Amino acid sequence: MKKTWILVLTLLLGIGLAADPALAQPKILKISNGVNEQHPSYLGGKKFGEILAAKLPGKYDVQVYANAQLGDDVRATEGVRMGTLEMVTTSASPLTGLVPEFNVFDLPFIVTSEKAADAIYDGPVGAKLGAALEPKGIKLLAYYENGFRQLTNSVREVKAPADMKGLKIRTMQNPIHLEAFRAMGANPTPMPFSEVFTALQQKTIDGQENPIPTIWLSKFYEVQKYVSLTGHVYGPHIVLINKKLFDSFPAEDQKIIAAAAQESALYQRALNRKMNSDFVAELKKAGITVVELTAEQKKAFQDAVAPVYATWEPKIGKALMDEFKTTVEKAK
Ligand code: TK8
What we know:
Shape: globular
Order of helices and strands: HEHEHEHHEEEHEHEHEEHHEHH
Bound molecules: D-xylonic acid
Strand order of the largest sheet: 2-1-3-10-4
Largest sheet: 5 strands, mixed
Distance between the termini: 80 Å
Strand content: 15-25%
Helix content: 40-55%
Number of strands: 11
Number of helices: 12
């Protein structure tokens, strides 16, 4: 009899402890990144974790992973959708299969400045795109920036679309990129980011395109000779969380998590922009030829890719494309 009572008391105490939120285990939030530990997007994830730990001590444990350890953009994003992974910071490209409107970010030369990017990210266009992901089981928390994409290659100085003729260029797994690079005269090959360095090293491809921070931090300069500052696409790095998981958190926590993500985004963008200007000099020091384009030379690239807009307008939607362009125009 005595034993039974002890058992009952122990059980009750156990239940009581488990129900006490102060003693509950923190919720683990793993964030997948394709980039490495020095990249602002990885560091932005770390910042998000720190802010959350300060605001909600002991409740959430943010664990940031680099180098596609949890999968490349496409696979990790699929994991977040399915609920097998909590979070990912991804380029827009893998989202286009779920919500075609995300293709808008990949239209060449549509974003003309960092200020314009901020106006998109933090304004109604960014919010609309985020809302469109929710029926797919994904909640968009914040927009980090990947930045202006620049072309690198190991063959020759590229100053005009004609110089791209025959160059085998790795692109992201997105049809607009393929189309745009074909229109510029190159021979594009889609490939996950994690395979790019080796492919460049083994010369199965001649070039790739990514923002300056990535070209520097991923050491692409070791296997490339030329960088052309084409700035052909301004890419976001989008922070996503499984929606069901997010919805399971207390409303107050949801607000704090969203605010922490946005705060980390402002930190991330500032850091990325600083690296974007600092690392051009570093690349030059490392022996890379940096090709700067005159406005006229840049126009030749813009003209070459202009037909892509016509093909994609019906898929992206004219209204969204117009709103996007107006937002960019206003932010100038
Ligand atoms: C990293 C990618 C990368 C992107 C690419 O996962 O694939 O070229 O620029 O930053 O999102």
